[in-house]
Amino acid sequence: MAGAPKRNTEMVTLESTIRTMRSERCSYAQIAEFLGMPESQVFAIYRDALARSPLTAVQIDEHRLEALETIDVAEYHLMKIATAEKTSPRSRIEAWAAIRAWEERRSKLIGLDAPTRHEVLTVHSIDAQIAALEAELDTRARLEVVDAELVEDAGGAGAGQQPGGDAPAAAAPATGADGGQGEAGLPVLPDEVPATGGSGERD
Fold it and tell me: Which range is least confidently modeled, 6-10, 157-161, 178-182?
């Protein structure tokens, strides 16, 4: 990133140490005491380090499992305090309050507090869904019929043409009785035969 200040080797090492100690479940106070710096500075360095290189999904799952193990250990010891006969009423109440806080933390980690969406089905909603499906099926059937008619029309129009797109050949001209043709394709008519009398001889 242009204009960003360069991080020297000392800062890189410091960030790596803080991230490692945090993965080992050390508190910010313990890290600050170990490094000899204010706790607020440790938190700021760790926050900036995460912003530059966020945790992967695998690392997040590992942190979640470690946190759940910590909750189990804390509740185990708190239950001993809360149920011990020698525990004062005040300490018992404080122990149960701490257990409840840990349980709330567990619920957030495993998603128990996530809102759940419930869908209520009624007769009217089911009928509406069925009607919508029937309308969709009817529309598809109509489209299939139209497509079939278009294909049939296209096939009928193509049947009247010869291959190559030429027009159909013209019909042959009519011929006369003797099969001859005159000029311009006109048929030659036979000689007129005069009417004959009863004897069948020419006048």
Answer: 178-182
